[in-house]
Amino acid sequence: xxxxxxxxxIGFVIYFVAIPALTYFMVERQGRxxxxxxxxxxxxxxxxxxxxKVMAIASFVLGHMFIPxxxxxxxxxxxxxxGLISIPxxxxxxxxYRNGYAMLRGExxxxxxxxxxxxxxxxxxxVSGLVSVAFVFEAPEFGAFLGTYTMISIIHAFGLGRVADIxxxxxxxxxxxxxxxETHVEIRPH
Length: 190
What we know:
Blueprint: H1 3-31, E1 38-39, E2 42-43, H2 50-63, H3 66-78, H4 87-105, H5 109-138, H6 140-184
Antiparallel strand pairs: 1-2
Transmembrane segments: 6-27, 48-67, 73-97, 117-137, 143-164
Keywords: Membrane, Transmembrane, Transmembrane helix
């Protein structure tokens, strides 16, 4: 391995592993507040469900594709404006990254956004899958990369749907707890 390859590998690991991991660890602790169950004695520290954690990390990693995608898109603009086709992918990457925060925090709007992102990702990746098949014959390495990335994105999209279900269940349970607590609160006149 020469110096350029080593430098590329180090940069790749920092960008796609270290930065998303650091982002996760900074946000996860704050996110516990959104998952705090309430009981009659007060609050206890919540735990973000493991699947939500995994999907948030995946969202941070896939969301990091925004920067390379932006550069590829800008380069593609020079070549007959082909970079314009990267715009939906850039939008998706940015929204996935941002929703990773909301999922970790257990925010109310995160479930709705996760479902929207699932639909958007499935449509975009259906097109991407067709393009990757076309590239298999013209540029096999690029076609294989695009096909692999498409499959990872599709798996992530279905995971977002599962996270939305988990978030909805969490919020329903929290509402039920509030209703139970309200029935046990004694109202005293002043």
